[in-house]
Structure formats: structure tokens, C-alpha cells
């Protein structure tokens, strides 16, 4: 299944890069703006539908009876196994709230740089929970990746307009650190779930999006419920807005495939490359000006990818004793 892994990684880079451009386009276009909470909810519903369709076609040859039997037995017939999938959904929800807290209490550039610690926390949890063996070269590559992405992100991000007097840096840094730990743990925990047991990756996606959609619906009701009740859930949606939702849903499916056939660390490298690609594309579509710091950061990211892909050095086994000498 090596071709699946390669194709999924290439598509993930393209998806992440195009998502940045479509989201930027959606934010800068004139007219009514759609509700972000509604977009998140619709994305999860779309992932449930897409995963169900793939599961129906690939595992059940369009046999609806067989499909619903599996859904019933695996999701509702094994509640404890299903509840395991609720853990990453809940953690990601808490993490998103922590990110808002961090952004509110740190300058934007400081937040972007410090948030790249998630690259290293993911590696640490991969070693701790999955017993993954990383060479010194691979640890070095992740350090270079952290530095490269931090340089690129700090270059792209302008300072926040929030009054520094209203910011609490201790709270901000604490929120970032906890968020990075949550990100690393949830990603690796999800990887462990996807790679263990007999359950299909598409069924796991259905379970994940079920819990995520419930949490998204609660967030939508709490934040924008009154306005959505008046204007409708599709208020402000146009072609670009629907493209953002479709792109995010496709990305969610791709991430599951990458984690299943590769790992979270490789996923981190792919998303980092996407940052470089999206910035280069921004030159064409948005007139973005590339400066020396971006070139340095991009070079570090590319170097990190090359170093991580190098095969581990083969161990040389030395003889424990000399062969007996022959008598002449």
C-alpha cells in the first residue's frame, strides 16, 4: 500500500495549500460572511456522509442491509469501543478553545512561533505511546522543521492590534503549551486507534465525525444560535464558502488515511510543506512579497524533509570472538 501513502501525502499537501487560499478568499470577499461555527458543523456532517458512502461501496458492494448491520454492530453494539473515539474529539475541542485563549494573550507572531512546538510534542508522544524509534538524524530534522516553520510563520504574521496591556503572557504561553501537548497526544492516540483492531478506517471516520458534529452543534448553538435561528444556517454561503467546507471535509478524510498508512510525524511534515506551497501560490494570487526570512525558513523545511526521509543507518555487527587459528 505504498502508493496509497504517497498519493495521500501529495493530496494532503495540495489540500492544505488550497485551503489557505480559499479561506483567505472567503474572508476578503465583499458581502455577507458565513458563520464559522456553521461551516465547522457542516464539514463534520459532510465527512459522515462521505465516509458512509465510501464504506458502503468499498466494504459492502452497495448492499444497504450489510452496511446498516455493520453500523449497528460496530457503533451501537460496542459502546465502549465507540466511546474511545470520543477522546480525541473532546481533546481537539478543548484545544481549539485554548488556542483562542492563547491568541488573545500573545502577539500573533509569538503565538505562531510557539505553537510550532506541536511538531516536537507529536514526536515525543509517538515515542511514548507507540514505541516509535527515531534516529538522531530524524530528531535533528524535526528541530529544523520547527525552526523553519517558525521563521516562515513569524514572517507571514503581523503583530496583533490588541492592546498589550490587556494581554497576560503567562496565560498565553500556558495555553499554547497545553494546546501543543493536547495536539500531540490526541493525534498519536487517534493513530493508535486507527492502526489497531479490525474496524475500517471509514467506520472510524464516521465515529469521529459523530462526536465532532455533536460538539460542533453545541458550539454553534452557544455562539451563533440566535443569529442562525433568524438568518438560517446557510446565511452568507456562496461558491467560495462551500469550497472551503468541501476542502476541509476532504482534508479530514485525507488526514485519517495519512495517519493510517504513515504516521502523525509524516503528516506534520506534509502540512509544513503546504505552508511553503501556499505562500508561493499567494505570490501569484494575492501579490504576496517573499523576503529573505521566508527563503531561509523554506530551505530549513526542505532540508528537514530530506533528512527525515533518509534511511536509518544499518547496524554493524562485530564478531564477539576471533576464529580459532589454524596450526601449520
From TrEMBL:
Membrane topology term: Multi-pass membrane protein
Record-linked Pfam families: Nuc_sug_transp
Chief location category: Golgi
InterPro entries xref list: EmrE-like (IPR037185), Nuc_sug_transpt (IPR007271)
GO CC annotations on file: Golgi membrane
Record's keyword annotation contains Membrane: yes
Signal sequence interval, chain numbering: 1-22
GO molecular function: pyrimidine nucleotide-sugar transmembrane transporter activity
Keywords for this protein: Golgi apparatus, Membrane, Signal, Sugar transport, Transmembrane, Transmembrane helix, Transport
This protein's record includes keyword Transmembrane helix: yes
Membrane-spanning parts: 38-57, 139-155, 170-190, 202-222, 234-257, 269-288, 294-317
Subcellular location: Golgi apparatus membrane
NCBIfam families in the cross-refs: nst (TIGR00803)
Homology family: Belongs to the nucleotide-sugar transporter family. SLC35A subfamily.
Protein name (database record): Uncharacterized protein
Origin species: Oikopleura dioica (Tunicate)
Taxonomic path: Eukaryota, Metazoa, Chordata, Tunicata, Appendicularia
Amino acid at each position: 500500500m505504498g502508493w496509497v501513502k504517497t498519493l495521500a501525502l501529495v493530496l494532503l499537501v495540495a489540500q492544505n495549500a488550497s485551503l489557505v487560499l480559499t479561506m483567505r478568499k472567503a474572508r476578503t470577499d465583499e458581502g455577507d460572511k458565513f458563520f464559522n461555527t456553521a461551516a465547522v458543523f457542516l464539514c463534520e456532517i459532510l465527512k459522515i456522509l462521505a465516509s458512509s458512502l465510501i464504506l458502503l461501496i468499498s466494504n459492502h458492494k452497495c448492499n444497504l442491509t450489510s452496511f446498516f448491520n455493520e453500523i449497528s454492530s460496530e457503533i451501537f453494539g460496542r459502546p465502549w469501543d465507540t466511546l474511545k473515539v470520543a477522546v480525541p474529539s473532546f481533546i481537539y475541542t478543548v484545544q481549539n478553545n485554548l488556542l483562542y485563549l492563547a491568541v488573545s494573550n500573545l502577539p500573533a507572531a509569538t503565538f505562531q512561533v510557539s505553537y510550532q512546538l506541536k511538531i516536537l510534542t507529536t514526536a515525543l508522544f509517538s515515542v511514548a505511546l507507540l514505541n516509535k524509534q527515531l534516529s538522531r538524524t530524524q530528531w535533528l530534522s524535526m528541530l529544523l522543521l520547527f525552526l523553519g516553520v517558525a521563521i516562515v510563520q513569524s514572517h507571514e504574521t503581523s503583530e496583533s492590534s490588541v492592546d498589550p496591556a490587556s494581554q497576560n503572557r503567562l496565560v498565553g504561553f500556558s495555553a499554547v503549551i497545553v494546546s501543543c501537548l493536547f495536539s500531540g497526544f490526541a493525534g498519536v492516540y487517534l493513530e493508535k486507534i486507527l492502526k489497531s483492531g479490525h474496524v475500517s478506517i471509514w467506520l472510524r471516520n464516521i465515529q469521529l465525525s459523530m462526536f465532532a458534529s455533536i460538539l460542533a452543534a453545541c458550539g454553534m448553538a452557544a455562539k451563533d444560535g440566535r443569529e442562525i435561528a433568524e438568518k438560517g444556517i446557510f446565511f452568507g454561503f456562496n461558491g467560495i464558502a462551500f469550497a472551503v467546507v468541501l476542502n476541509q471535509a476532504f482534508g479530514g478524510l485525507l488526514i485519517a488515511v495519512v495517519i493510517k498508512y504513515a504516521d502523525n510525524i509524516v503528516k506534520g511534515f506534509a502540512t509544513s510543506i503546504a505552508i511553503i506551497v501556499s505562500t508561493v501560490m499567494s505570490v501569484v494570487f494575492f501579490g504576496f512579497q517573499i523576503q529573505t526570512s521566508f527563503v531561509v525558513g523554506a530551505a530549513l523545511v526542505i532540508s528537514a524533509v530530506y533528512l527525515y526521509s533518509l534511511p536509518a543507518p544499518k547496524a554493524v555487527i562485530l564478531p564477539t570472538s576471533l576464529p580459532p587459528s589454524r596450526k601449520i
